[in-house]
């Protein structure tokens, strides 16, 4: 049996891969088997990956909102668009979680031209130049031209000091961060020239997916108990992470939702963030 990817390409269906993605939602092996048993009669030759996702999402949500929320992480990152501004805010939160001070949307003068820098991050003797590449399609890939372009920006800042947090420093490293995938050429180029890459699945042991699951840094767009308009409202008021509403429940005041729904949102948030991986 084959499935159709977003690109239209047909590939062999791998039930073990599907079960693996289901288990990463936090569901037990018994729940994963139950979900697959319910999906099986509805899976047909040529089914799209989008329809497979919808089936799995719906069935996981019947088990627990937080399972569906965790399963939807990749799509939730895409929902930080369409322009990517909120993705930059979220990336700043990723670095902030590991004790960097961060700034976003900085206009900085290089040796030859002025650059708009997505994120600046500083900790101890490190000053990072962070470029965010947001993509709003499921299977988008960052080709080698992007790290090539980014390297030219890194080089244009060489020898220049900036005082963002009261300590004049030169940039010590460049980071290219994306919610998409990296091509092999992109990875090889970055490795050769000393650029740091962070994507959905790279590096394998510290990818975006791994970092989010390990630290509970889920974007607010993961929540399944909140509508799209409500998510937009939360994002616009600076509520970027699910953790933000756990730390400050008053973030939900602007939604004017009924007490029962409010309790359900908070329950999903807590279960999502506090889930302990086996």
Automatic annotation (TrEMBL):
- Which InterPro entries does this one have? AF1548-like_C, ATP-cone_dom, Restrct_endonuc-II-like, Restrct_endonuc_IV_Mrr, tRNA_endonuc-like_dom_sf
**Database matches in Pfam families:** AF1548-like_C, Mrr_cat
**Biological process per Gene Ontology, one example term:** DNA restriction-modification system
**Gene3D superfamilies on file:** 3.40.1350.10
Q: Which UniProt keyword terms apply here?
A: ATP-binding, Nucleotide-binding
**Source organism superkingdom:** Bacteria
- GO molecular function terms here? ATP binding; DNA binding; endonuclease activity
State if Nucleotide-binding is listed as a keyword: yes
Tell me which positions the record assigns to the signal sequence: none
ATP-cone domain boundaries: 1-82
Keyword Nucleotide-binding among UniProt keywords:
yes
Task: Supply the name of the protein.
Answer: ATP cone domain-containing protein
What is the species of this protein? Parapedobacter indicus
**What's the source species' lineage?**
Bacteria, Pseudomonadati, Bacteroidota, Sphingobacteriia, Sphingobacteriales
